Amino acid sequence: MSQFHQVFFEESFEGLEVMESGLLNMDPGEVDAEQINAIFRAAHSIKGGSGTFGFSDIAAFTHIMETLLDEMRDGRRLVTDRALEVLLRSVDVLREMLTAASGKGDLDEESVKAQMQELEAVLNDHVGEPASGSDIDAGSNATLHEVIGWHLVFRPLPRMMQTGNDPLRILRELASLGDMEVECDVSLLPGFAQFDPEECYLSWNIHLNGGVDRVQIDEVFDWVEDDCDLAVMPLHADAPELSEADNPTKKIIGDSALNVTEAEEPYGPDRRKSGDRRKGDRRVEQRRASAAPPSNSIRVDITKIDTLINMVGELVITQSMLSMLGENFHIGQVDRLQEGLAQLERHTREMQESVMQIRMLPISFTFSRFPRLVHDLSTQLGKKIELRMSGENTEVDKTVIEKIGDPLVHLVRNSLDHGIEMPDQRIAAGKPETGVVELNAFHNGGSIVIEIRDDGRGLDADRIRRKAIEKGLIEESDKMSDQQIYELIFQAGFSTADKVNDVSGRGVGMDVVRRNINELGGNIEIESELGRGSAIIIRLPLTLAILDGQIISVGDEIYIVPLISIIESLQVHPDSINLVAGRGEAFKLRDEYLPIVRLHEVFGIEGYRAQDLKDGLLVVVEGDGRRCGILVDDLIGQQQVVIKSLEANYGRVEGVSGATILGDGSVALILDIPGIMRLTNQSPELQLVKRTA
Amino acid sequence: MASILAVDDSASMRQMVAFTLKGAGHQVIEASDGVEALQYAKKQGVNLVITDVNMPKMDGISLIRELRSLPSYRFTPLLMLTTESSPEKKQQGKAAGATGWIVKPFNPEQLLSTINKVLG
Predict the structure, then answer these.
(1) Is A414 a catalytic residue?
(2) What is the value of pTM for the model shown?
């Protein structure tokens, strides 16, 4: 049985997702039959499966949930707020039970017991309903209904043999699976005169005994699915035709066995439908995976792999073409050589793109947890909040999926806790009672943008400013734009929450959020309008394995500057340079003064050419919302580079985020712009604040 | 022993198929595209055809359609080798008259066991 466990857990976690989203969509007092049915079916299959695979405590637990849902479905019980809450919490407990059963966590038996009691309390709320305690065991009976064989009706269509498929082959294959009894139906056989030897007139009734897996049967019929009518029905231990007294597998089963029989309908006409459903569920399935801890494996859409395999094929062809050419090369073939090389280049690029595609997963992996979070939090806070999500199918790198979750949760919590006002405050401010939080994801240029928008009270620049002064982060005399003030909330130790409560203020600050996002190579910005709402905008690179880079040189050294952080490159006019006492040089770019970072000083490079500022070029870069000009000798070119981790191969170096190997085989370091700004020990952000004054 | 026509534009794939089948005592004829395969098949009968789907000149599905329309290939098993596990490709193949398919990647044992089943 244990070989089915993995599948069972996958299905069950999927089922939990269905139950959870169904419950969240239900409103008290309303009977949405379809919705309840979906939830019921999910609970039912978890119950059935857990019984079959020997998890009787899960079966018992699910059984109570199922009973409750069944009564709601039939209208025997009102859908109350309390019942929905209890069911939602039960889904959580069930998830823990399943996680524990799959060996990935520990189970808090007490909380299971408590939740079970609560469920029963809800169930017993209804006068006249029998206490459920006595039925609980019915679930564990499910262990008994093993399939002991299959009854197949196989009716080839007349045309079947014309595709080279022989019914005899299929019968032979079936016979190899187990003990088989076959009955041939000759009723359709025509008279001799009408007999066409190229058509098939026979059909068969087959009893296949023994624990044959349904999948094995499906495989046998895989090729002829559309060339025959086929029904496959499971035989259970108590099926009348097999209830010989001496059958050792015979077991007595309760009504639960019937349920399973119903579920396993003959699949001829239904098969395609269930195939479709499986496809539709793929997203749910993928989302389920997100609940699991970060894993080293990845679930990839099969079409992506197919594309890749095809591409490898093409590459092999091109390669063999080139090596043939090389064996006997003469100058007249130079055209073909160039053509081949161009083809090789195209294939390599396409392959790179499709390999990158494999790492890409839809952001819904992360987004899917928010409806529940918003539901729970808004209940807890006594606020009315609607969550709107868009762009759930936007694909992002797997690492981003794994690392963006916590920062996003933090930001959404912030919006709910600090952003959206209490209903009465909202009404007083002339806003709709229900606040809206939006989660959007979309592609923009070469990056992915994730926005968290709310229509709450917005950031209060004055309050933040006062707070920052209080904390000694800025001085009373500092003049700052609102945007600069908003930036302050990313400073370590900054929290404007008047009182720390359960929702936010757990010691994880916005500084941590920003750091996490920076680690992913992205940046974070705030837009806000007092009284109207605010938006947090996160920009992330499309992939973490390849980077669009600007190659620069200083002396004999070559470095890569991520293109995403470059604003412009220019030659400075000596007139636009100012010396700031004790703070080094700054240059005027339009209305702004920016500090100048001489890269050769930062990295101690000798033999640099740009002694004088006018001999070099300034690359204006931005990182963490701050800007500076980096002085380099020359710009060499732009190129996509593959990022190799420096930490994994050598060690962490401040100011450098990684390395890459260039076309000529040499290694170039990739600059970490925020890191370089920190390195220049000039505290550029204060400089910025003061200089723009 | 059966004579088997193996059609694939990738030489390495053809070699793998041929090596496996020859090892099991079959006679293997190799062709690198549909046109070449069809020419051979018209000239000389074979017991089984295994063809790749994506090929230059004539793809596997057209090859199967052409072969199936020939009187001597009406009941010959015609198998597709496909990376496309998509139902549509299989459907197209079936509509053209394919007996079945072997999904790439496969190992020699899988190939042999399928071939043996078809050849009976």
Answers:
(1) yes
(2) 0.44
